Amino acid sequence: MAIGYRDFSQFLREHFDCKMQKIAINAGFTCPNRDGSKGRGGCTYCNNQTFNPAYCTPTQSITKQLEEGKQFFGKKYPDMRYLAYFQAYTNTHGDIDRVMAMYHEALAVDKVDGIIIGTRPDCMPQELLDQLAELNKRKWVMIEYGAETSHNTTLDFINRCHSWEDTVDATLRTVKAGIPCGLHLILGLPGEDEGMILSTIKRVSQLPLDTIKLHQLQLVRGTRMTKDVEEGLYNVQHYTIDEYISLCCKVIQHTSPSIAIERFVSQSPDDLLISPRWGLKNYEFTNLLNNSIKKLGVKQGELLNS
Ligand code: SF4
């Protein structure tokens, strides 16, 4: 149980009466910010090397991926139930019937009680949302949008090819459809200081969201951003672990208590990650964060109106 903030396990306990585990799957979707339907070249921090035909044409079916995930997690917790997490790329980008068939395939797998769909805020047509709202009456459905920041100048700079207004629109339509909704945000994008990051958290806190999921900006090999930084075109924040934990505490203080915070860090593969290289396992980061929360007496939302 997290200290000082409402975490994702608490959110799941409010929806399910047993232990739930997410299983990430790659359903072979692509990205509209690369295939030309929204943009080309992709977001500047996104690793081009992972965008290849082999990754986008998974050799294993959705069912097989979920069965393998269940086998892995089920060894330790035989009674575990599961959520299929459509994580890779833009999991609503495609023909609606084909997309819905993928969600149905996942939900047909034994012990899979729900799906979480990761996508972009500009890729949620109302027709698909209506069908998801119908599905959500029978099975648990959640949508997670990659917002990354509330600042359009930053979104333009990193070539996201969508706006904060798209995020607000998608969030409000999703909540209106009765579907749990989360946002993904990146802390430390180029040009964003602490004030800009906290203003995003305050704007996010005004939305009727269920969750946010955060991670530090990572410079990864093979990305446009890494090339630009190496060429000295601009720089990005290189947080030390203490600086980043201090930032996370402030984020907690500015986040509405009605929003669960799913995570604060992410770890790219070691051979691709350039910075930050903190060398911490997730649980080690959580321990350091918890220590700071306790020491400073941090409480979620206490500075929301500051
Ligand atoms: S971060 Fe997502 S939207 Fe951006 S280029 Fe990569 S896959 Fe596409």
Please give a handful of descriptors for the protein shown.
11 helices, 16% strand, single chain, binds iron/sulfur cluster, 306 residues, 9 strands, alpha/beta, 38% helix, TIM Barrel
Can you put this structure into words, describing what you see?
The structure is a single chain. This protein has helices at 8-15, 53-56, 62-74, 96-107, 126-136, 152-157, 164-176, 194-205, 224-230, 241-254, 282-296; strands spanning 20-25, 81-86, 112-119, 140-148, 181-187, 211-216, 219-220, 260-261, 273-275. With 306 residues, it is an alpha/beta fold. It has a single domain (8-296), classed as TIM Barrel (Alpha-Beta Barrel), CATH 3.20.20.70. It has a 7-stranded parallel sheet, with helices on both faces. A two-stranded antiparallel ribbon has the order 7-9. Strand 3, helix 5 and strand 4 form a beta-alpha-beta unit. Helix 8 (194-205) packs parallel to helix 10 and helix 10 packs across helix 11 (282-296). Residues 50-57 have low confidence and may be disordered. Iron/sulfur cluster is lined by residues 31, 33-34, 42-43, 46, 89, 120.
